[in-house]
Design brief:
With 322 residues, the protein is an alpha+beta fold. The chain has 3 domains: 37 residues, no CATH class; 198 residues, Homing endonucleases (Endonuclease I-creI), CATH 3.10.28; 66 residues, Orthogonal Bundle (Arc Repressor Mutant, subunit A), CATH 1.10.10.10. It is built from 13 helices and 13 strands. A 4-stranded antiparallel sheet has the order 7-8-10-9. Helix 3 crosses helix 4 and helix 12 packs across helix 13. The longest helix is centred in the last third of the chain and has 17 residues. The chain is elongated, with a radius of gyration of 24 Å. The N and C termini lie far apart (73 Å).
Length: 322
């Protein structure tokens, strides 16, 4: 550092200087202000050193398997990760996860301000460490060949849970009574089932053709929910986003003193007399499972009391009175 300017110096040269002058490497480490790879554009500033393999490190691996891609550039440059995510909350959480492991990242593209961005790139220096830490390669992150690294199973349950939550965020679906992950990778599904067994979550693995499914069923959801909340208190970035709200509603419904109310159909009719609603919106308003609301909606349609008035989002039918 000189007159406020930062200089990037070859690491091998710095290590050689330390060796010749008998300067401890820990002293060098304590004075590193930032680092990047040769030719890299995004610098890690205010780095966290030494880098620790935390549960969030394993969660990032899951994201790079789930909605991630590996960019393998030409001309001898090293591969690095991209993460495609349309949900802005999950985008910002991904950046916070990287920074919680490696340190502040000085991105050339300001992902925090660019509303149109759907893909975020991990600096090459971070990506390279994630390959090396567990002895992984490009095939380790391809949709059809990815597996859970054995080190994740050998790490503590916090690591395994963080990895599982990452897969749920990217490839999981939260329904009224279970969490399901569907992948075109049967071996990875079997790995996820094994991970759920290790964590004590009751689950079912189903293999159907080239697709596999792992279900964390209602008997396993309570333990998952409690363990998730504990991990989130320790590492807030594991936040499940809108999927947390779906789970929270499920447990509110489950804890109701009256599980089945004969007048629910009348309540639904009253709601639809006041506004147009989807099944999900009705379920949230009256604390009923979506399956339960669907049952009543089918009955009301058959009785010709309600009608479809439109569609919201990805195929969510909007209902109103006839």
């Amino acid at each position: 550092m000189k007159k406020g300017y930062r200089y990037t110096i070859n690491l091998e040269l710095l290590l050689e200087i330390c060796s010749r002058l008998k300067i401890p490497r820990t002293h060098l480490q304590d004075n590193i202000m930032g680092y990047k790879t040769r030719g890299g554009q995004n610098e890690i500033t205010s780095p966290i050193l030494p880098i620790k393999i935390t549960p969030i490190f394993d969660m990032l691996l899951a994201h790079h398997i789930g909605d991630g891609t590996v960019i393998n550039p030409e001309k001898g440059r090293r591969p690095y990760f991209g993460y495609r995510q349309f949900d802005k909350t999950y985008q910002q959480l991904y950046i916070r996860k990287i920074e919680s492991v490696f340190g502040k990242i000085n991105y050339n593209n300001n992902y925090t301000e660019n509303e149109s961005t759907t893909r975020i790139y991990s600096p090459v220096a971070c990506s390279e460490l994630m390959f090396k830490a567990y002895g992984l390669n490009i095939r380790s992150f391809l949709s059809k060949t990815a597996r859970i690294p054995e080190q994740v199973f050998n790490n503590s349950n916090e690591h395994g849970l963080a990895f599982l939550i990452g897969m749920i965020i990217d490839d999981g679906h939260v329904d009224s009574t279970n969490i399901v992950i569907r992948l075109k990778n049967r071996l990875l599904i079997e790995d996820l089932g094994r991970l759920c067994d290790k964590l004590g979550f009751k689950n079912t693995v189903s293999l159907n053709g080239e697709y596999g499914y792992v279900y964390i069923n209602k008997d396993g959801l309570a333990k998952f929910w409690n363990d998730y909340k504990k991990l989130k208190r320790k590492f807030p970035v594991v936040f499940l986003g809108y999927k947390e709200k779906l789970l929270e509603n499920y447990f509110k419904i489950k804890s109701r003193k009256i599980q089945r109310v004969p007048g629910n159909r009348i309540i639904i009719l009253k709601l639809l007399s006041e506004e147009y609603l989807t099944i999900n919106e009705i379920a949230e308003k009256i604390l009923m499972t979506r399956q339960g609301v669907r049952y009543h909606i089918r009955k009301l349609e058959k009785e010709e009391n309600i009608r479809k008035v439109g569609v919201k989002g990805e195929g969510n039918i909007i209902y109103g009175l006839k």
